[in-house]
Write a structure and sequence with these properties.
The complex is a heterodimer of chains A (115) and B (115). Chain A has 115 residues and is mainly β. Helix content of chain A is 0%, strand content 49%. In chain A, the strands form two sheets. In chain A, strands 2, 4, 5, 6, 9, 10 and 11 form a seven-stranded mixed β-sheet that branches. Chain A has a four-stranded antiparallel β-sheet with strand order 1-3-8-7, with no helix packed on it. Classes of the chains: A mainly beta (115), B mainly beta (115).
C-alpha cells in the first residue's frame, strides 16, 4: 500500500528561478491537495483538485504559483520567479473525495530553500 | 475566515505522564475535526471526529469533540518518548458551501516526552 509520494524531497535554488514539484497521490484517490508549511506553523491550504478539475485556490496562491493535474492522477506545483518568502515545506495530500468524511493523507513534502 | 487555536503551544513531560491537548475552532458549515501527528516528515492521520460526545480511541490515544462549545481534546496516557512530535488539529467544511474539502490547521502543539 503506497502512500502519497512527493518529488523532490529537497530543492535549493536561487531567487528568481522557477521550480516545479511533483505529487503522486494514493491510487484511486480522486482528490489532491497542496499545502504550504513554514517553521512553527500548521500547514496552510493552497489549492485542491477533484480529478483533473482545480476546484479552489487560496488567496495565498499568487499568480507566480500554478498547479496542474492533467490526467487526474499526479499533480505538479510550479513556482515562477521564486522569492525568499517562498522558502517552506510544500505538502501534498490526497483523499477519496466521493465519500463523506474521508481523511486526507499526506506525503513527506518537498522542502524548498531559496538562496 | 475559519480559525483553529491549539493549546498549549508546547508541553514537556516525563514518560508515563498523561497529557491533554486542546483545540478550539470557528468554522462556517463545520463537517469534521481531524488530529494529525507530525514528526520530521508527513503529518500522520490519527482521528477524524464528526459527532459530539463520541470518543475515538486508538491504543493510548483518545479524542472527543464538543460541537456546542466548539472544541476537541486529544488525550495521551502513559506517554512514551516515541510520542514526542507536533500534534496538529484541523477542521474541514461540509458540502454545499464554499471551500469544501480544504482543511484549516491550528499552529500545533509541540510535545516533548523525556525518559
Amino acid at each position: 500500500d503506497t502512500g502519497v509520494s512527493q518529488d523532490p524531497r529537497h530543492k535549493i535554488t536561487k531567487r528568481g528561478q522557477n521550480v516545479t514539484f511533483r505529487c503522486d497521490p494514493i491510487s484511486e484517490h480522486n482528490r489532491l491537495y497542496w499545502y504550504r508549511q513554514t517553521l512553527g506553523q500548521g500547514p496552510e491550504f493552497l489549492t485542491y483538485f477533484q480529478n483533473e478539475a482545480q476546484l479552489e485556490k487560496s488567496r495565498l496562491l499568487s499568480d507566480r504559483f500554478s498547479a496542474e493535474r492533467p490526467k487526474g492522477s499526479f499533480s505538479t506545483l510550479e513556482i515562477q520567479r521564486t522569492e525568499q518568502g517562498d522558502s517552506a515545506m510544500y505538502l501534498c495530500a490526497s483523499s477519496l473525495g466521493d465519500r463523506e468524511n474521508q481523511p486526507q493523507h499526506f506525503g513527506d513534502g518537498t522542502r524548498l530553500s531559496i538562496l | 475566515e475559519d480559525k483553529v487555536v491549539q493549546s498549549p503551544l508546547s508541553l514537556v513531560v516525563h514518560e508515563g505522564d498523561t497529557v491533554t491537548l486542546n483545540c478550539s475552532y470557528e468554522v462556517t458549515n463545520f463537517r469534521s475535526l481531524l488530529w494529525y501527528k507530525q514528526e520530521k516528515k508527513a503529518p500522520t492521520f490519527l482521528f477524524m471526529l464528526t459527532s459530539s460526545g463520541i470518543e475515538k480511541k486508538s491504543g493510548r490515544l483518545s479524542s472527543i469533540l464538543d460541537k456546542k462549545e466548539l472544541f476537541s481534546i486529544l488525550n495521551i496516557t502513559a506517554t512514551q518518548t516515541g510520542d514526542s512530535a507536533i500534534y496538529l488539529c484541523a477542521v474541514g467544511r461540509g458540502a454545499g458551501g464554499t471551500s469544501y474539502g480544504k482543511l484549516t490547521f491550528g499552529q500545533g502543539t509541540i510535545l516533548t516526552v523525556h525518559p
